[in-house]
Amino acid sequence: MRETITVGTAAVSVAELVAVARDGAAVELGDDALAAIERAREVVERLADADTPAYGISTGFGALATRHIAPEMRTQLQRSLVRSHAAGSGPEVEDEVVRGLMLLRLSTLATGHTGVRPATARLLAGLLSNRITPIVHEYGSLGCSGDLAPLAHCALALLGEGEVRDADGRRQPAAEALAAAGLEPVELAAKEGLALINGTDGMLAMLTLAIHDLQALLRLADVTAAMSVEAQLGTDRVFAAELQALRPHPGQAASAANLVRLLADSGVVASHRGPDCNRVQDAYSLRCSPQVHGAARDTVAHALAVAERELASAIDNPVVLPEAGRVESNGNFHGAPVGYVLDFLAIATADVASIAERRTDRFLDVARNHGLPPFLADDPGVDSGLMIAQYTQASIVSELKRLAVPASVDSIPSSAMQEDHVSMGWSAGRKLRRAVDGLSRVLSIELLAATRALHLRAPLTPSPASAAVLALLDTVDAGRPGRDRHLAPEIDRVHQQVRSGAVLRAVTEAIGELS
């Protein structure tokens, strides 16, 4: 039975967004949300009947806001707004992003500050519950006045126009999908078109999903780093809590504590722990893993704080203030807060991938891998081992460095200079999604190299955590030494275990939850 998320006047949580966006949870509106929506609608209808023009209710939009719109033209005004703003282009945006932005728009409607009718909000919830996903395109949002084009494509589906994908992924006209689900298209009333398209929901959905993914990937990075330290005969002494306390960054302390636990009871580490060990200092990519991973963790924590504030926000323009009985223009739709942290996360993601690639490269160089064969090959010269797997890592890391160039420092004027400074937050979100995927692939290749190296260290025994990973990858025929074989499918099998969470689950079952 599918989970159902109740959207009320309180903020949607990260877990709820992931459940709806990624896992297909159904959605319903709470009684508190419906009451709040009714109160705001009463304000809008009173202002719509007034002689004094009110922006978004009885006027045009943007640079056309000076025109007063007669009552008999206001339905057409809202319909025209949605149709004209659904102007995206390029490839389809992923379903999980579209479902995420739809949920976040519904959450804002539920605050009672937008002025839509309950029926319109219920229809948006109905699309989510029936897994009807509007087609949204890659290009079209400047991240100011919100994610206008992406949201307009979603609003268009409420009118029974445009194209959608149904629960089975079939692309079809929105009217057909709504009819099949027993849903009636809506005819927008005053203010509703604007309320449906004016928010930071697209960039915020991408930020929230990225935070969820990065929290898992940074724990995985501690796993791959520990396995690299272990297989390269590194020391675990540098991860001691007393050393981390000298520089009290919380992310660093958590990462180092993970490394200590991951390396505990390792026969490989114990084999060179005695007084004869000449490994006084490991290379930075091994020794400084907690510092880099920890800085990334603290960056994610900052981004989460921003995301949670944004999740608790009511983003619209104009916004309805029911207690005061008025509608006011504002600038809360500007995506700068979200755009900045999207870019910040792209920087951290690139650096975590960079240090992982450096750890992997050390495995392959006979001058630095402490007794392992060149490129971890079975018969070096005849076999190339993991030589080109590192090339793949390097190409991804290079791409991540380009993706780390911030989008939010850019701006381009629009709407006849009315919208003369924009956030480019949507673009920051698009590149972060690509970066997060790249990091997962870089860590997968490090995991593959570390697994093969630990097998080559036999009969020395790995730590219980590493042994659990080796056993898991054995089940998918990955990581064993031997003659060269088609490597791409093996990398993909490891990547599937990473993205599914299977690697972290195996570690958790062996040693408990990581920080």
Keywords:
single chain, three-stranded antiparallel β-sheet, 515 residues, two-stranded parallel sheet, Fumarase C, Chain A, domain 2, 2 domains, Fumarase C, Chain B, domain 1, mainly alpha
**CATH class category of the largest domain:** Mainly Alpha
The total domain count is 2
What gross morphology would you assign? elongated
Query: The biggest beta sheet, please?
Result: 3 strands, antiparallel
Q: Spell out the helices and strands N to C.
A: EHEHHEHHEEHEEHHHHHHHHEEHHHHHH
CATH topology (level 3) name of the largest domain: Fumarase C, Chain A, domain 2
Instruction: Indicate the low-confidence ranges by residue numbers.
Output: none
How is the largest sheet built, in terms of strand order?
4-6-7
SSE class: mainly alpha
Q: Kindly state the percentage of residues in helix.
A: 55-70%
Protein name: Histidine ammonia-lyase
Pathway: Amino-acid degradation; L-histidine degradation into L-glutamate; N-formimidoyl-L-glutamate from L-histidine: step 1/3
Pfam family, one: Lyase_aromatic
Catalytic activity: L-histidine = trans-urocanate + NH4(+)
Please provide a brief summary of the model:
With 515 residues, the protein is mainly alpha-helical.
Topology:
Elements (H helix, E strand, L loop, with lengths): L3 E4 L6 H8 L4 E4 L1 H19 L24 H12 L3 E4 L2 H16 L7 H12 L3 E2 L2 E3 L8 H11 L4 E3 L5 E3 H7 L11 H6 L3 H31 L9 H4 L5 H14 L3 H4 L13 H4 L1 H23 L7 E3 L4 E3 L7 H29 L22 H17 L21 H32 L7 H12 L11 H13 L2 H10 L4
Parallel strand pairs: 1-2
Antiparallel strand pairs: 3-5, 4-6, 6-7, 8-9
Helix pairs in contact: 1-4, 1-9, 3-6, 4-5, 4-9, 9-11, 9-14, 9-15, 9-17, 11-14, 14-15, 15-16, 15-17, 16-17, 17-19, 18-20
